[in-house]
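Mannose-6-phosphate isomerase
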Amino acid sequence: MKDIIHLEPVLQEKIWGGSRLKTQFHYDILSSKTGECWGISGHANGTNVIKNGEYKGRTLRELWKEHRELFDNEHGEEFPLLVKIIDAQDDLSVQVHPDDEYAQKHEGYAYGKTECWYILDREPGAELILGHNAQTREELQQLVDAEEWDKLFRSVPVEKGDFVYVPSGTVHAIGKGIMILEIQQSSDITYRFYDYDRTDDNGNPRELHIQDSVACSMVPHQDPELDRLFWKEEGAVIERLIQERYFTVDKWDLSGKIERKNTTYLLMSVVEGSGFVKTEAHEHKLHKGDHFIIPSTVASYSLSGKMTVMVSQTTKG
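Structure:
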């Protein structure tokens, strides 16, 4: 395959969701409680359908299983990364995700969930919960048992353009009014600490996972040190947001044309503006909200236009 893999987004309703995925990204949302767009996903809970080319109508999950040559012949049972856009009209639950070892032992799934967030938009005064104030696991358990949530959880303000790294074990919650692009391990395992006593459509309290949450949490919390690196190329300013064990994420701000030889497969999401992507096979018009993959079978490609593209890949070596 010498062309991009253009993906149909998967929309997910959430109790805390809103309608900005339609107003800002023009997706055909399910309702006014649409919380997530799974833009690049091979996960069983929501895998994208291919929109173009010889694999049109197939799913990314099928391609990963049957055509590993498109993905550097990478090993692993599951497509390794998942790229989402999240619209939090209300606060998300305070939660924590397991690491690989815990997920394999307790859930029988290959991956835990380390993730990162690029803040696309936020209402004035919006905050995240990021981390906790307990110094020992015993103190964590005591504060949870006493339901002293204000004392336990740590809130931090955010601005548009901020980048947040959330390794597994980090207590966290996306706050009301925040919209993010999330790049994560391809896992849907979430343990809830606290959910504001909300109920589901049937009036039942949403399930909490206190024992797993305490067991998985990083104690004490530590903020990761991040160095955001910038460099200029003809036609673009590129920022390396993170390079860690599971993924490498760059932000490309294009104001012209950038041409690249290709050495791997790349996940790309257009978060602002419009432009074009061109391979040996075809040229495609790109719009805000488009998600696509440049497979490793493409030898070279170019991007052009005035747009911001988030580029992620598995970290090699």
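The chain is about 10% helix and 40% strand.
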